[in-house]
Amino acid sequence: MQGQPKADGHTSQRVKVAITYCASCGYEPQTLALASALMQEFVYDLASIELIPWTDGTFDVVVDGDLVHSMLREGGFPEHSTIIQAVRERLVH
What's the pLDDT tens digit per position in 1-31? Predict the structure, then answer.
């Protein structure tokens, strides 16, 4: 899928982000804050941000099919800058 034309006339691939979060744990504020940070940073470069309510203390972030953060693996919530960098890396490829 092609992205929106940029000011210089070029297009880029748009990136899909999925955030799976533990709804019963009250992780909605962290989920919405990350989604908001991504929307503000990338505006037209995101194809979608999917929010997936789950259970079991989950907070996973997948960027274009690659798991870039897992609460189980890394512990805690991701820094927004880490996820933003992961999206940026996919935009340049």
Answer: 344 444 444 446 899 999 999 999 999 999 9
* CB 73 within 8 Å of CB 61: no
pLDDT tens string 65-87: 999 999 999 999 999 999 999 99
pTM (two decimals):
0.85
Give, in order, the Cα–Cα distances in Å from 25 to each of 13, 34, 49, 62: 34, 17, 21, 20
Q: Which residues pair with 16 in a beta bridge?
A: 48
- The answer to whether 11 and 44 have CB atoms below 8 angstroms apart is no
Domain ranges within the chain, ordered by starting residue: 15-91
At the fourth CATH level, the homologous superfamily of domain 15-91 is Glutaredoxin (3.40.30.10)
